[in-house]
Amino acid sequence: MENIIEVRQVSKSYTDFKLDQIDLDVKKGFITGFIGPNGAGKTTTIKLLMNLIKKDAGEITIFGSDNVSHDKAIKQRIGFVYDECCFFDHLSIEKNARLIAPFYQDWDQQLFNDYLKRFHLSPKKKLKNLSKGMKTKFSLATALSHHAELLIMDEPTAGLDPIFRRELLDILYELLEDEKKSIFFSTHITSDLDKIADYITFINNGKIIFSSSMNTIQESYKLVKGTKEILETMDTSLFISYQRNNFGFQGLTNKLSEVVASAPNVLIEPANLEDIMFYHARQ
Ligand SMILES: Nc1ncnc2c1ncn2[C@@H]1O[C@H](COP(=O)(O)OP(=O)(O)OP(=O)(O)O)[C@@H](O)[C@H]1O
């Protein structure tokens, strides 16, 4: 399967943080979700992909080319949604679009107008008067209006109401189904990804914990529940982490067969992405 993004052994250090020799693949034609707790390194990774900051070491290729030496050509083919993006707050939506359009060879004004209508955005409204959610919609309309093959989004669902969040997920799904785009996006709202992601990359403390298909993750990780008495007989190193509660314990494992062999009476349940993130962060 073809990779549209390949990150190899990339590091970036700040005073109190290190993105540590990360490897990451984004598959062509699929949705990859990028999850991790606050401060894990998601935005730093996305900024490195977009060549907005300089890496200390490693290689990043996008569409098969180095992302620094082919920066301009690569950015023509990417739709980027980012909180602190490069728009003019004192200008209206339509004036912003007029300034952005010349940067893209394939800018499609009709498509942009269609997205404004679909997102209920008035072209005359100044950016400084838009709510956070409306700004995200504008940013998204821009990212989708130059026929990008790859969408990279940092927290696109943050600040959106549940109705538009659902609509955004539908749009992403359409882009994938009808136009075979590739999508990479970070989010805290893991339930969004439970619905639509094909692959998940999980980062914690600047290290990639896993980068796998949803199916593999669902097969690998399970919640284990049992009584205090069972816990006392168990090898707790089989858990990513666990917590005691009034009834006994609950933990996350990726060593299910060993857990069942050592404690046949435990209760096994599927783990969702939030569980996986939670127990890894407690480690
Ligand atoms: N320019 C910078 N100078 C120093 N430290 C930085 C800088 N940018 C980010 N950091 C630090 O790097 C770490 C990772 O930040 P990053 O924004 O990548 O995390 P994140 O996973 O996107 O978090 P969140 O989910 O809270 O947005 C944090 O500890 C942050 O304070």
Automatic annotation (TrEMBL):
Q: Which PANTHER family match?
A: ABC TRANSPORTER ATP-BINDING COMPONENT, ABC TRANSPORTER ATP-BINDING PROTEIN ALBC-RELATED
- UniProtKB keywords: ATP-binding, Nucleotide-binding, Transport
GO MF, one term, reads:
ATP binding
Please report the stretch or stretches of sequence annotated as the ABC transporter domain. 5-230
Please name the source species.
Vallitalea pronyensis
Q: Which Pfam families match?
A: ABC_tran
Q: Which InterPro entries match?
A: AAA+_ATPase, ABC_transporter-like_ATP-bd, ABC_transporter-like_CS, ABC_Transporter_VariousFunc, P-loop_NTPase
What is this protein called in UniProt?
ABC transporter ATP-binding protein
